[in-house]
Specification:
Distance between the termini: 59 Å
Largest sheet: 7 strands, mixed
Number of helices: 12
Shape: elongated
Strand content: 5-15%
Structural class: alpha/beta
Mean pLDDT: 93
Helix content: 40-55%
Length: 296
C-alpha cells in the first residue's frame, strides 16, 4: 500500500525503511529532514491517492495536535490518520471524534520496539473502528513481527494499552535496577554483574529482553561508570498513575518506580536531609555536613 509518514526520527525513520523493505510505497515529511520526499503536509497529502493514509510519528502534545488539525483541513472522507506517537489516550478519543465529524477515520497505534524495531519488528496496539484498522492493517502487519500486533479496541484503546505497557516497563526496569544495585552493594563476593545478567537469561524466571539489554550494557561498561544516574520519563508513567488514582486501582510498584525516576534527578535529596535531621533530633544520630558549593 501507499502511505505518508510524518516524522523521520529514530522510530519514524526506521519504520519507513521497514515498510519499504516490505514493498510499501512511502511519501515522507519531517521538518528539516533532507531525506523527506514532501515539503509540507499539503504536499504530502497531494502525493497520496484515496483513501489516503497519513501516519504521524512525532512527539505527543503540541506537535501532534498541530499536525492533526492541519491534516483535517487537507484530508477527505474515507481518509485515515494514524497516530503512532505516545499520545494521551484521552486526546486520541477526542481526535477520533473530531476526525469522524469530517468523515476521516483515526487510528491510535501504540508502538513498542524502540531502535530495535527495524530488525526485530514493532509490537503495535491499535485502537479505532474495525474499518479504519482494516485499511491500515497491511502496513501494521509489515511493521510487526509474527503475532506482534492486534486491534485492541475502539478509538483510544491503543494508546491506553500502550500507556499501561509503559507503566509496567517502569516497574520492570526499577526492579532490575534495585536488584543489581544490591548485587554490587555488598562487596564480600565481588560479583561479576555481567556474568549474573547473562546467567539469568537461561532458565531463570526473571529472564527477559530487558535483562538481555542490561547484559549488553554491562559488557560495554561493567560498572556503568560512564553513565550518570539520571532517569527521565516520557510522561506515560505519570498518566498511568493518574488514571489509576481516578479509577481507585492500586498500582504501588508502578507508582514507586515513577517516584524513583524523580529521585534520580536530585543531586542531593531533600527527603534524605529530612530523614537525617529527624534521626539527629530524636536519637542524637550524627549528621554529615553538606558539601560546600563550588565557587561560581
Amino acid at each position: 500500500m501507499k502511505l505518508g509518514m510524518v516524522g523521520l526520527g529514530r522510530m519514524g525513520g526506521n519504520m519507513v525503511e521497514r515498510l519499504r523493505q516490505g514493498g510499501h510505497v512511502l511519501e515522507t515529511y519531517a521538518l528539516d529532514a533532507p531525506e523527506r520526499t514532501a515539503d509540507s503536509l499539503d504536499d504530502l497529502v497531494s502525493r497520496l491517492e484515496a483513501p489516503r493514509v497519513v501516519w504521524l510519528m512525532i512527539p505527543a502534545g503540541e506537535p501532534t495536535e498541530t499536525s492533526f488539525q492541519t491534516l483535517l483541513t487537507l484530508l477527505e472522507e474515507g481518509d485515515v490518520v494514524v497516530d503512532g506517537g505516545n499520545s494521551n489516550f484521552r486526546d486520541s478519543m477526542r481526535r477520533a471524534e473530531e476526525a469522524m465529524a469530517k468523515g476521516v477515520s483515526f487510528v491510535d497505534a501504540g508502538v513498542s520496539g524502540g531502535i530495535w524495531g527495524l530488525a526485530e519488528g514493532y509490537c503495535i496496539m491499535a485502537g479505532g473502528t474495525e474499518a479504519a484498522f482494516k485499511t491500515v492493517e497491511p502496513a501494521i502487519a509489515t511493521l510487526a513481527p509474527e503475532s506482534g500486533y492486534a486491534h485492541v479496541g475502539p478509538p483510544g484503546a491503543g494508546h491506553f494499552v500502550k500507556m499501561v505497557h509503559n507503566g509496567i516497563e517502569y516497574g520492570l526496569m526499577q526492579a532490575y535496577a534495585e536488584g543489581f544495585d544490591l548485587l554490587q552493594g555488598i562487596p564480600d563476593f565481588e560479583l561479576d554483574l555481567q556474568q549474573v545478567a547473562a546467567l539469568w537469561q537461561h532458565g531463570s524466571v526473571v529472564r527477559s529482553w530487558l535483562l538481555e539489554l542490561l547484559d549488553s550494557a554491562l559488557q560495554e561498561d561493567p560498572h556503568l561508570e560512564g553513565i550518570r544516574g539520571y532517569v527521565q520519563d516520557s510522561g506515560e508513567g505519570r498518566w498511568t498513575i493518574n488514571e489509576a488514582v481516578d479509577a481507585a486501582v492500586p498500582v504501588p510498584v508502578l507508582a514507586l518506580s515513577l517516584f524513583a525516576r524523580f529521585s534520580s534527578r536530585e543531586d542531593e535529596s531533600f527527603a534524605a536531609k529530612v530523614n537525617a535531621a529527624l534521626r539527629h533530633q530524636f536519637g542524637g544520630h550524627a549528621v554529615e555536613a553538606a558539601k560546600a558549593k563550588a565557587a561560581e
